[in-house]
Design brief:
8-stranded mixed β-sheet, 5-stranded antiparallel β-sheet, 401 residues, 18% strand, single chain, Arc Repressor Mutant, subunit A
Amino acid sequence: MIYRFEDFVLDTDRHELRRAGSLVGVEPQVFSVLQYLLEHPDRVARKEDLLAAVWGTTFISDAALATRIKEARRALADDGRAQRLIRTVHRVGYRFVGTLRTDRGVETEAPTPSRSGQVRFCRSADGVSIAMATTGDGPPFVKAANWLTHLEYDEQSPVWRHLIRELSRDHTLVRYDERGCGLSDRELDDESFGLEAWVRDLETVVDGLNLERFPLLGISQGGAVAVAYAVAHPERVSHLVLHGAYARGRIYRGAGQEELNQALVALTSHGWGEADSAHAQVFAARLIPRGTPEQVRWLVDLQRISASRQNAVLFRRAFGQLNVEALLPRVVTPTLVLHSRRDQAPPFEEGRRLAAGIPGARLVPLDTDNHLVLEDEPAWPHMLAEIREFVGLEAGALATR
């Protein structure tokens, strides 16, 4: 049996625990404890049941069991304080509380597909493995990668799932994790982080799926990638949709912005993926200031699940240095620019400049504070209606080779 949760895979046939494809070393008894918890996710595993299942008639103290639980949590990047995946039920036992999926058979090298069964891998020109996924049916709709994503995790996330669900309703939505993030290769050199590499990865995904013509969505810094791709391949992009995007990185936005960018880099290097850190609070406040506690928790968890601290710092630096303003007048694709009125990451002015620089682009302000528009706010149906109306006219004509 194979159990999947977050970016972990536990394979009982191979007696292996893997995270993002990499083997995680665990002792046999710790593996057995994990297996028992995953086999019974619908109830609390009582201490006596765990002891009997793992050690049989051999006497094991409660302290020894607690040590194995601690080691199991450590293997899952969990701990007794957070109890993100393994929860202690006082004086009773333990329970696995993560989102769990199972399947039978031998695990292949590639991670399991998402709901649609369409996760694949392609290799960029410089040898980097890029994870891509398709959901839904119909003509293709491509989403340029943005920070942060994880192909499997996002389909469950209250931050991303509504976007994936609705764009997959009338189209085959194509998503991918950018290099250094999610299920794509994470062990990269510093030169792998930048606009040229990100555009090359988008080209690799499109070519790998043999897509001919499609709408292209760019969110946040993915907007700059989408703009660069649309300029390089105008014959392929039927519609360009930019949401919360910007043409110039922070260091080009005026006095004090380079210092602010350096401060954000420092925050990232010290608090990445830590729920109680100043970075987590700043990160959530900038992206979803009106988010619920659950939405904020998912966003913070996404930091830890999708990227290492080292890569997060490299991403942050590279985003500050983006600049595609010189490309804007060369965009010939019909363009829709959506931007939250009170967005701080980046501010609305950056969306206005983006729309003003692209010939014929239409700017649609969204009445929200959130950079990432959430499902439970009025701006969401407005945003969705604008996208559907914009791409709908030619949707029936879009096709793959």
